[in-house]
């Protein structure tokens, strides 16, 4: 990154709004030494906890608490950082923050501390993103994975791939100077073998990143089923507590199905199709259009069927409108009433499960099936949290590698595809710049030789 960081002093309340035992105001800037002494009423020793009086401009006591001073570059942002810990009440925190602003700080923008950490090379882009993902994590598995990304597990794998691409590019670009022997040279150096190995490693990283993305984004399941087949009962049973309302009266539960539950730490978003019907009502039409948009992006459709009735005509109407590629799971509910046994099978190429939501039979099998169908690997061990942006970048890189393999005998095109693959991957960590690459080439290769 060649953007030069802004060096003015920023301040913000770092703890969550509301009341808490302790609240923290954080500051970051180029030179906080003087401001730190002013706020604390005495000089602060780096990385020591000082118990101090925080006072306003008139010398009136605001609070008593701890002041910690981290001179740059050994700090989160790489700049001087000051942390003021006071009593965690909204009014006290506001007074403390106002005092910081009086002394010359300005209010930080959202994410500005992390952005400064990135600009000062304390974190790369993927790590910076994982700070937000860790804070937003909706399950323990997601939190553990975000922490792995923050610690550099994901960036590390991307960096290894980028380095291997750079090595290959150096090889290919060197041959550009000797057009008469370029292809022989590339064969001798096993350029294609190296490319194949990189592509294979890319697939491995993509696999892990997809797991991480699943943890972050969750699976999106379209729920189809007539009134009273047991949709709410099933979602409640899967969620493990009573949230949706279960009732005997057909039609009364139209969208009480909760939106989000967790399956082994993987969020499951439910897209309820209960409201999908022909209508002239404008508002309802908008809702229906939105539901169809969600359906387009879904991972799978779950058709819930009352075992006593089988698939109905209404179900078929909805099914016919689903995207062909959307995987489907047919679940026959209420087997406690039909005397059927639990079981799994297949019907018209779709997996089928028999269970009873009310009796709690077959739910583990359903959980396992749903997770299997969206490609969950079974545990978050070794998984790093990833975003759709990262998956896109990896897929783009992969596409360039595929093209590279096809055009390798046209050395200039080969070189260009490798460059584009590297560019795509580097966008994940945000570290790429053309100058970096040139420096790398010059330092390790003697072109004029
Ligand atoms: P929804 O309209 O599809 O959401 O269906 P509900 O979950 O509201 O359930 C409708 C009725 O079916 C309720 O009385 C439930 O108790 C009942 N029900 C749901 N699942 C089962 C089941 O597995 N067995 C039996 N016997 N009844 C069930
Ligand atoms: Zn319902």
Automatic annotation (TrEMBL):
Cofactor binding note of this UniProt entry: Binds 1 potassium ion per subunit.
Binding-site positions, GTP: 228-233, 247-253, 272-275
Pfam families named in the record: MMR_HSR1, MnmE_helical, TrmE_N
InterPro entries for this protein: G_TrmE, GTP-bd, GTP-bd_TrmE_N, GTPase_MnmE, MnmE_dom2, MnmE_helical, P-loop_NTPase, Small_GTP-bd
Binding site for K(+): 228, 247, 249, 252
Binding residue positions for Mg(2+): 232, 253
Principal localisation: cytoplasm
Gene3D superfamilies (UniProt xref): P-loop containing nucleotide triphosphate hydrolases, Probable tRNA modification gtpase trme, domain 1, tRNA modification GTPase MnmE domain 2
EC number annotated for this UniProt entry: 3.6.-.-
Complex formation: Homodimer. Heterotetramer of two MnmE and two MnmG subunits.
Name of protein: tRNA modification GTPase MnmE
This protein's encoding gene: mnmE
